[in-house]
UniProtKB/TrEMBL annotation:
It is an enzyme of class 2 (transferase). The keyword Cell cycle does not apply. One of its GO terms (molecular function) is uroporphyrin-III C-methyltransferase activity. Coiled coil: none annotated. PANTHER family: S-ADENOSYL-L-METHIONINE-DEPENDENT UROPORPHYRINOGEN III METHYLTRANSFERASE, CHLOROPLASTIC (PTHR45790:SF3), SIROHEME SYNTHASE-RELATED (PTHR45790). This is uroporphyrinogen-III C-methyltransferase. Its EC number is 2.1.1.107. The keyword Transferase applies. Keywords: Methyltransferase, Porphyrin biosynthesis, S-adenosyl-L-methionine, Transferase. One of its GO terms (biological process) is methylation. InterPro entries: 4pyrrol_Mease, 4pyrrol_Methylase_sf, 4pyrrole_Mease_sub1, 4pyrrole_Mease_sub2, CobA/CysG_C, Siro_Cobalamin_biosynth.
Amino acid sequence: MSSLAPLLPGTVALVGGGPGDAGLMTVAGRAAVEQADVLLVDHLAPEEALTWAPVETLVVDVAKLPRGAFTPQERINELLVEHARAGRRVVRLKGGDGFVFGRGMEELQACTEAEVPVRVIPGVTSSVAVPALAGIPVTHRGIVQGFTVISGHVPPGHPASTLDYGALARSGTTLVVLMGVATLPAITAALVENGLDPTTPAAVIARGGHPDQRVVSGPVADIAVRAAHVDPPAVTVIGEVASFAAVTAASTLEEVN
């Protein structure tokens, strides 16, 4: 089925909203929002996209804010199924791409198990788009041939962490850290302790895709100190490509010396 096919009553669409700028949403994502009877919205979804929905659309805030408002994932799954079974066109709107640390598969499984028709409309992932908006390529010919995206929601050594920081430090790839503002000191320390050159360039891009986007750059050994004033959401890039932040005119740059 085409991603632009009409959204039928009783159907759920899982839509990735991209990195923050509504103009970076996909055509299919916008079409789904324009047909929604119910919108279940995360706090990182583009605010402008809400204006595309019909005036009678029910908008439900299901944000998971760090140390703030929190809607359990189980309840979100229930809402998707409940509204779809009531014959409504349901759109789940997230920031970035819902299948990159966005629990999109959990929602897909909930709908599938409930025999609710579900459509996936991928979004532009912030792990690639936000660095690009700051003029940083995650790969670059002659510099790096790959990139690794990790979640920083728990620090190294935490029982819930499954990451091998020794392997990451030796990977030779660009490291992109999502959800890692609070844990950045521990993450960067673990990388350096495991052999990453402490002078490796790094950059923290705050509120990527928004008018107030800001970039803080510096060596990985002290990037956490330089970016201590940065609040979520932010994406951290670690690797030689992060040095492009110092020469780009694509965003406002805070160069802390």
